Amino acid sequence: xxxxxxxxxxxxxxxxxxxxxxxxxRFPTAGGKARYNPIDFATLRYVQTYPGCRGAxxxxxxxxxxxxxxxxxxxxxxxxxxxxxxHPDGGGAKAHHLTEEGQAMRDAIHAQDxxxxxxxxxxxxxxxxxxxxxxxxxxxxxxxKESSExx
Length: 151
Fold this sequence. Notes:
Layout: H1 3-22, H2 38-49, H3 55-62, H4 66-78, E1 82-86, E2 94-98, H5 100-123, H6 126-149
Antiparallel strand pairs: 1-2
Helix pairs in contact: 2-4, 2-5, 3-4
């Protein structure tokens, strides 16, 4: 792969990350309800998708150390976004659920994510849209599979 192509892609992806995740004025994260924190957001998404999950399940999915995930969950619990209770399997395992405030935060994050995607899609004409989406699907599919096969 040509270094020039990699540099071009790096510049493009870097610009998109900066616009959508750093610039809080133009595209406020979660509708201005939170600062962007990738592991917090990914944890909230996982707990929403798998209510009653254990911290170890989240850590395994996100490929982070269990102690790191525990710290994230503790922080989200202190913020009132997640609650922890006994897991039905017992053995000291803990189950995690979103609170109403946590669900509202996930809804705000998702709404902002969709607004961000619509902003990008509005720039792409209908003729190019499927080509771009197919290419990004392919990248996400391959890298997602590689990520799930490691660790």
